[in-house]
């Protein structure tokens, strides 16, 4: 035999008294993504990890700038990264009830970057930038909620008034919205 096969190490590493499992592919990639994000940190975005023992659930807290109809609002998104990340995209959900053409009342978010446009090179920073983009420039033409999208396209000023009204925590069309201001 020309090449001798070396003994492979166990997928577990001994540390002190316990045994630590090998890190998942998703965790390794997320560590890299978070490190990259920290170098490019965005002033009006904060990351929060609700489970101190896991990087796979991230809360992204965005306070959109003055160009946004959601200016002065604080909106929280939850990203849940599967064990198969980056091969599979994170699940994105808005944790606030918000009047938005690309976010439904249950929190589903229309973000093509994590659906039909997803590929394994998409990282945490790119997803955050996509969320910032839909909060700054909602897409009325490709809306998850066509009634809100149509209003936005046809009467942007009325759309902004309703956004301002609902972000104050008021109900509209028999639906209560969260106070985001």
CATH homology-level superfamily: Ubiquitin Conjugating Enzyme
Largest sheet: 4 strands, antiparallel
> What would CATH call the architecture?
Roll
Instruction: Please give the order of strands in the largest beta sheet.
Output: 3-4-5-6
Number of strands: 6
Computed over alpha carbons, the radius of gyration is 21 Å
**pLDDT < 50 stretches:** 1-15
Give me the oligomer status. Answer: single chain
Query: On the 0-100 scale, what is the average pLDDT?
Result: 90
Note the total helix count. 4
User: What count of structural domains?
Assistant: 1
CATH level 1 name? Alpha Beta
* CATH topology type: Ubiquitin Conjugating Enzyme
Order of helices and strands: EEHEEEEHHH
Q: Class by helix and strand content?
A: alpha+beta
Q: Into which percent range does the helicity of residues fall?
A: 25-40%
Q: Tell me the span between the first and last alpha carbons.
A: 71 Å
Shape: elongated
Portion in strands: 15-25%
Give structural notes:
The chain is α+β, with helices and mostly antiparallel strands. The chain has one domain: Ubiquitin Conjugating Enzyme. The chain is built from 4 helices and 6 strands; from the N terminus they run E-E-H-E-E-E-E-H-H-H. Strands 3-4-5-6 form a 4-stranded antiparallel beta sheet, covered by helices on one side. Strands 1-2 form a two-stranded antiparallel ribbon. A hairpin with an 8-residue loop joins strand 3 and strand 4. The longest helix is centred in the N-terminal third of the chain and has 15 residues. The N and C termini lie far apart (71 Å).
């Amino acid at each position: 035999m020309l090449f001798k096969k070396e003994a492979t190490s166990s997928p577990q590493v001994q540390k002190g008294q316990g045994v630590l499992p090998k890190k998942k592919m998703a965790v390794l990639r997320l560590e890299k993504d978070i490190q990259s994000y920290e170098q490019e940190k965005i002033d009006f975005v904060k990351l929060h990890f609700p489970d101190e023992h896991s990087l796979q659930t991230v809360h992204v807290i965005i306070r959109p700038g003055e160009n946004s109809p959601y200016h002065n609002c604080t909106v929280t998104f939850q990203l849940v990264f599967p064990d198969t990340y980056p091969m599979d995209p994170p699940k994105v959900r808005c944790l606030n009830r918000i009047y938005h053409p690309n976010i439904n009342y249950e929190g589903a978010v229309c973000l093509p970057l994590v659906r039909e446009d997803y590929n394994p090179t998409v990282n945490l920073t790119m997803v955050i930038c996509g969320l910032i983009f839909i909060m700054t420039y909602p897409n009325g033409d490709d809306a998850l909620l066509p009634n809100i999208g149509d209003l936005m396209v046809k009467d942007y000023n009325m759309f902004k008034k309703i956004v301002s009204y609902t972000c104050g925590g008021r109900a509209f069309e028999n639906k209560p919205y969260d106070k985001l201001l």
